[in-house]
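Q: I'm writing up a methods section and want to include an example of the input and output format. Could you take the sequence below and give the corresponding predicted structure tokens, formatted cleanly so I can copy it straight into the document?
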Amino acid sequence: MMKEDRQFLTLFHLSQLSGLVLSSIGSFLVPLIIWILRKDQIANLDYHAKGVLNFQLVLFILSIISVPLIFIGVGVVLLIAIWVISIIFPVINTVKVSNGEDFFYPFRVNII
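A: Here is the clean output for your methods example:
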């Protein structure tokens, strides 16, 4: 039986910030592992996980695109913007989910 657990979903969105400690791949791997292990136990985790993982994949793709652009001077600005976005939106959405509101991630492309 699946139960709604807003506190768990709140921590799930916050788990993206693990990339600040583990490495940028942690921002994707930690939520992925949590989703795989708990998707059948927490209601709405599938919906939240797909939003988070798609957001992280888009940030990763944008980062890869930004690297060659470093040589023309634009890449550094893009990488800084991606880094800021990768912190701001998980924090904003953590607060939204803890208040029972729906979350929003920019650049959402449904990859997963």
